[in-house]
Amino acid sequence: MEVVILSGKEEAGALAADAIEALFRAKPDGVLGLATGSSPLPIYDELARRHQEQGLSFTRAQGFALDEYVGLVSGHPQSYREVLRREFTERVDIDPDRVHAPDGTATDIGQACAAYEAAIKAAGGVDVQILGIGTDGHIGFNEPVSSLASRTRIKTLTEQTRQDNARFFDAAEEVPHHVVTQGLGTIMEARHILLIATGAQKAGAVQALVEGPVSALCPASVLQLHPHVTVLIDSASAGQLKLTEYYRHTWANKPHWQGL
Ligand SMILES: N[C@@H]1[C@@H](O)[C@H](O)[C@@H](COP(=O)(O)O)O[C@@H]1O
User: Fold this and answer.
1) From the CB of 140, is ligand 1 less than 6 Å away?
2) What ipTM does the predicted assembly reach?
3) What distance in angstroms lies between residue 132's CA and the mean position of ligand 1's atoms?
């Protein structure tokens, strides 16, 4: 796990965009794992800028969303399919039909989850997965005590996550209780994982993710078992880490030719 402490979300977004750009320059039909929430927005802003100003192209790319609310009507502005359309798909040249999200409106959720897993597999798996992290250590919507081997399935949100996400809705009670999310086992199959976290409210979760024991209580800690994870954070979210000097030293002395 590479931990990179940066000046803020813009620098984190630019570094993540560098890794994503490198993927699509080398492999134009690469597969991007898409996250929602506010943390990945600087990445999407930077990718949109590079598309507009530097011709970075996604015409042959595919994208897979991590998760989706259950019970929001199709086209609801806070459904993650819509959020990703606004924040990413519409701003670059990716084919909207090649951007997939779990179906939170399916009558047979179990079947829809199995179909989603099959679609990721058929695409050849995710090359670069963007991740944020919840204040309780969730990734995707894998809440504490999620199985570390879980696959795409329906989950119940904790009250903390519903409160955290209430800012996106008109009223707190509108936040759905249920979601469909890629499992931790699904996420772990991505070839490179870029996790971005900023702000002091994430400091506890970041500490547990990076330095805590691997435990279902902090689902993100499973990433310690992945061979290629990059954690992009700012000083505030690094505030509870014990080995910050080492992380800063490692990054400052990284051979400049080596990408993330
Ligand atoms: N399902 C999403 C997660 O993928 C995201 O990481 C988390 C944190 O969001 P934010 O980046 O806004 O703090 O929010 C939601 O729960």
Assistant:
1) yes
2) 0.96
3) 5
